[in-house]
Amino acid sequence: MSPEVFIAVMIFVFGAVWGSFANVVIYRLPRGLSIVKPRSFCPSCKKTIPWGANIPLFSFLFLGAKCFFCKRPISSRYFFVELFTAGLFLAAYLVTGLSWQLLFLFYLSFSLVVIFFIDLEFQIIPDWFTLPGVVLGVAYAFFNTDVGWKNGLIGLAVGGGGFLLLAYFGQWVFKKESMGGGDIKMAAMLGAFLGWQKLLVVLLLASLTAVLTFFVIKLLKPKSLADRIIPFGPFLAIAALAAYYWGAQVISFYTEKFWAIR
């Protein structure tokens, strides 16, 4: 095995471990439980899971998606979160290599995974991730010439300020809260990390996927989603990942095909 492949495998394993921790945060944080102690436990029987039955990815498959003690089914979300986080960590490494940017992208990837699932279930975007994310995003933009400190600060202003104005406008039009503070802080974090150009790509992609999802739900009318509010945070998370990896191509395509016409 070459050193490059070995490092990639270790990054994937490292990401799976953090994915396991992401599952802990997703379950405990919105319920007001400590994310540090006690050790991982079964949500059904509440028994502490032994380390041998808590190996990321492997234990879920080996135990047949059932608890080691009570044999009750374990949600496939646990496996998916571990796999997805591991894949995001690996993708970040393949893009940046072993560099200082990698640590920032680990944080961003981990945060987006946690935000996606917490907001989807509880309609909450924790400040635990967005507020430190704003600071880290500005630092990332400051030292990363691909973003630049000016673009990062403009992105922060566009994301936070723009969403704040949208929230006030929506409240004025609909006479009720149309956008939560968590969405505003998340947009500010993404603007700082990605810069204002890619933030616009995020907003475009998130809006399009949200509208498409809304029409699909209205068309199919699934009972499981009939009376459920679908928050905007998950769409922002997916769009942010797409914009980070392919946003430059989207911007280049637009400027070449449409801006040149003008």
| Percentage of residues in DSSP E strands | under 5%
| Averaged pLDDT | 87
| DSSP helical segment count | 9
Q: Give the structural class.
A: mainly alpha
Principal-axes geometry comes out as: globular
Q: Could you say how many structural domains there are in total?
A: 2
What would a concise description of this structure say?
The chain is mainly α and 262 residues long. Helices cover 70% and strands 0% of the residues. The N and C termini lie far apart (53 Å).
Structure description:
The structure is a single chain. The chain has 262 residues and is an all-alpha fold. It has 2 domains: 98 residues, no CATH class; 140 residues, no CATH class. It is built from 9 helices and no strands. α1 packs across α3 and α7 crosses α9. The longest helix has 27 residues. The termini are far apart.
